[in-house]
Specification:
By secondary structure, the protein is α+β, with helices and mostly antiparallel strands. The chain has twelve helices and twelve strands. It has helices spanning 31-45, 72-79, 97-110, 139-142, 153-163, 169-188, 223-227, 259-264, 290-301, 318-327, 343-346, 353-366; strands at residues 7-14, 18-19, 54-60, 88-91, 116-124, 199-202, 208-211, 248-258, 271-280, 308-313, 373-380, 384-391. The strands form two sheets. Strands 1, 2, 3, 4, 5, 8, 9, 10, 11 and 12 form a ten-stranded mixed sheet that branches. It has a two-stranded antiparallel sheet with strand order 6-7. Bound molecules: coenzyme A. The site of coenzyme A has 20 residues, from helix 5 and helix 7.
């Protein structure tokens, strides 16, 4: 009989994230090639892991057509040179796709069915615009199951402002600017680059180049400048391009392992999975989704919010992160929250982002032995939230900082 076992995040890597659209660096790059390159990079960095021992490959994409279709986990595994004996499948939970890849593979390891698994996601929002090529059932609107605005994520963000008037545009602007500055500081300190797989890219003239850094960053951002931006989701609204995650192309991948595999292959895991949860909320204000999913995950772990020493929260919109912080009584600028910035500056290639949060948390764990637990959490379209709590293997038992 297989037994329940510990689940470890051994390692994770990602492509640099590109600006979606014709001017973006990945316009001439296939979506599946992004995740294939990420897998190759991760397997090269973990050369001691026998490829034929990988039990499964789960790859998420929100839009599963064209170069993001065709059972991505399986096709990406073949294209990345994994043995034909390694199976794979595709995952879809909108923005929490890669997070769901990790929790699904983690659960398979946890119940003792798998030893090693790859989990990640990809979204080429340039080639696959958000909401493109879908045909929502007319009952959603005809039967007033959800408001039409619930399908536009920016409109749902405006609604959080409506519901919580004390969460002002000024606070969101400050948060958006801080994200840009924190990412830039992290880049300057060399924190982000080690987990990036460089990607060969072709420009419009057919010349080759190399993508080595996230493309969408705007380090020159000022709070004053953000105050002047248009509000694309509502006339005289409060959400702007400066407080939204930009449309982005990118891919992420992680290697997960059970306790026995860690021993057998002499692996040095970066995080241990403690608990996870998903939760549903009203689709009209989907951005508050990570509040109930975090409460569920904390409860399952027997922890409270005060036990969390580092937060990696996906910044789909500044206002939805602020709503979570406000709920838990955490300041907008708390140093435990997204210390190296977030999706507003780095980008949010929907189904890839969950593992980007984990990669960043893992890198911070390594330099913060005073922190025992960290949270990765994100909101999900159509009213959901996803949260995973992780334990730091480098925790030294001494709580030096809060
Ligand atoms: C918000 C959004 C509509 C903006 O799209 P866009 O207009 O193509 O974005 P741009 O990058 O061109 O920015 C718009 C303007 O704001 C400016 N801007 C953006 N960020 C800025 C910043 N940090 N500082 C200063 N100016 C900024 C741009 O320069 C541009 O100015 P211009 O109109 O004078 O050229 C788009 O990014 C979006 O839809 N984001 C949400 C994606 C989403 O829903 N994801 C899922 C989440 S659940």
């Amino acid at each position: 009989m297989a037994e329940m076992t510990d689940v470890f995040f051994v390692d994770g890597m990602r492509t640099p994230f590109g600006r979606a659209g014709e001017k973006g660096m990945y316009w001439n790059t296939r979506a599946d090639d992004l995740v294939v390159k990420a897998i190759i990079g991760l397997m090269e960095r973990n050369g001691d892991v026998p490829k034929d021992r990988i039990d499964d490959v789960a790859i998420a994409a929100t839009s599963q057509t064209g170069d993001q279709g065709l059972t991505l986990g399986r096709t990406a595994a073949i294209l990345a040179g994994l043995p034909m004996t390694v199976p794979g499948f595709a995952v879809e939970r909108m923005c929490a796709g890669a997070m769901t890849s990790v929790t699904t593979m983690g659960a398979s390891i946890g119940v003792g069915m798998y030893d090693l698994a790859l989990a990640g996601g990809v979204e080429h929002m340039g080639r696959h615009p958000i909401g493109g090529n879908v045909d929502p059932n007319p009952r959603f609107v005809a039967e007033k199951l959800v408001d039409p605005g619930a399908l536009n994520m920016g409109v749902t963000a405006e609604r959080i402002h409506d519901r919580f008037p004390h969460l002002t545009k000024e606070r969101a602007d400050r948060f958006g600017a801080a994200s840009q500055h924190k990412v830039q500081a992290a880049y300057e300190a060399g924190k982000i680059q080690p987990d990036l797989v460089s990607i060969a890219v072709k420009d419009a003239e057919g010349a080759w180049g190399l993508a080595t850094e996230d493309e969408g960053r705007r380090p020159e951002t000022t709070v004053e400048g953000l105050a002047t931006l248009k509000t694309p989701f509502r006339p005289h609204g409060r959400v702007t391009a400066g407080t939204s995650s930009p449309l982005t192309d990118g891919a992420t991948i992680s290697l997960l392992a059970g306790r026995d595999a860690v021993k057998e292959f002499g692996l040095a895991p970066k995080m241990r999975m403690v608990s996870f949860a998903f939760a549903g909320v009203e689709p009209e204000i989907m951005g508050i989704g990570p509040i109930p999913s975090t409460e569920k995950a904390l409860k399952k772990a027997g922890l409270t919010i005060d036990d969390i020493g580092l937060f990696e929260l996906n910044e789909a919109f500044a206002i939805q992160v602020i709503s979570l912080l406000d709920h838990f009584g955490i300041a907008d600028d708390d140093p435990r929250v997204n210390p190296w910035g977030g999706a507003i500056a780095i980008g949010h290639p929907l189904a890839a982002s969950g593992v980007r949060l984990m990669i960043q948390l893992a890198a911070q764990f390594a330099e913060r032995p005073d922190v025992r637990y960290g949270l990765t959490a994100m909101c999900v379209g159509l009213g959901q939230g996803g949260s995973v709590i992780w334990e730091n293997p480098f925790f030294d038992g001494k709580k030096k900082r809060k």
